[in-house]
Amino acid sequence: xxxxxxxxxxxxxxxxxxxxxxxxxxxxxxxxxxxxxxxxxxxxxxxxxxxxxxxxxxxxxxxxxxxxxxxxxxxxxxxxxxxxxxxxxxxxxxxxxxxxxxxxxxxxxxxxxxxxxxxxxxxxxxxxxxxxxxxxxxxxxxxxxxxxxxxxxxxxxxxxxxxxxxxxxxxxxxxxxxxxxxxxxxxxxxxxxxxxxxxxxxxxxxxxxxxxxxxxxxxxxxxxxxxxxxxxxxxxxxxxxxxxxxxxxxxxxxxxxxxxxxxxxxxxxxxxxxxxxxxxxx
Length: 282
What we know:
By secondary structure, the chain is an alpha+beta fold. It has 6 helices and 15 strands. The protein is globular.
């Protein structure tokens, strides 16, 4: 039976060691970055968001060590970059029950929030409920969880969705894997999706209509997909690249200080461990 409460990629979590410095890095890449948020005490983390139409990126840093953020701290000990991907759920309690009924020891739902300064000068609160697949289940080295937005209006703020580089959404998350086929099949089994094969041999897992697909591939294929862009700083295994849609490729090239072309690439060394590729929005 298909999962009823998983809709598709909601956001990717880019774990960073210096949260405020990282926000400046991403601003320098032509992104509009939200004000800094501080999560509920049990989370022990803070964030900045980069908002698109239906999805977003989250820059996440640890403020106070807690049991909840131990996996992130362990991960940051070796590198920065895309630590996990979140799927949208319309009902976290029903979603976790659905996963548990399949014999997977998912945990949650966990409720938390963060204050949000609004454009009119007032302060509101963004509230969420999340659930997690077990930490040990990391398809291609990437953790996954699901997020229910209880106050969407405090996250998708129109003023935060306009970017100098024209970015409007995440098309693909590309993950390096020792065994791309096995990693794709593991993820597909966890979210009840079907694996397909791309023309270049990569393994593709769709996550939902209008949402990003997750692609598993080896280093040679990743290099072929991003010619001229250094792979230095990327992990041996794990989420490595984001392909973003932009409405203004020339504007993206200008904002990023690169030569215009059919696509625009940014090496991981410039984007806190994330290789970026901008393509014209379809």
